[in-house]
Predict the 3D structure of the following.
Amino acid sequence: DIVMTQSPLSLPVTPGEPASISCRSSQSLQESNGYNYLDWYLQKPGQSPQLLIYLGSIRASGVPDRFSGSGSGTDFTLKISRVEAEDVGVYYCMQTLQSPRFTFGQGTKLEIK
Amino acid sequence: EVHLVESGGNLVQPGGSLRLSCAASGFIFNNYWMTWVRQAPGKGLEWVANIKQDGSEKYYVDSVKGRFTISRDNVKNSLNLQMISLRADDTAIYYCARAGNFGRIDYWGQGTRVTVSS
């Protein structure tokens, strides 16, 4: 099974400042088609998770462009260019390479300083 | 608009059984894989099970194999999770979700709470 490891686990950020979350997989998530099978989700307090990014770098519908995903193979990054108060919550990466078996990272809690 | 509404969560004793249901609307149900994801209190997300569009393929996380059964009714647009031999570590919020193209989970329900305790 693929193991997903996120860092940091806690991320205090000042509003307006950038933020970055790392996700590493125990094996490459890149298929021969060039796609990286890595998603990012945000779970805001008291809410269900929501899809932010899929295939490593494609923003889901309605996701603000301050969110971006990058990386390839085993190393991936979610960046928020300028954090807003509404961005607080727990961010999860998830591999879909072994679809239909999925694996989530442990989660990274973003909080406002 | 896509809607996924779970039901069936409850307090159950260890060793007991429970059946969760999810009513889907706003999309062509039998075009999509469907998923159950759970979240134990204060913990992260854990994928539980997936079922193919026609129900012919089912996949489970190792910890629930042999105890949980995922099923779907494409006439009633519903997804189910039959759980037996429940354990304390099955205590969680269970989310019904839709798996879109490339496996991404693009819609989630609000979740239903399962508590396994004596």
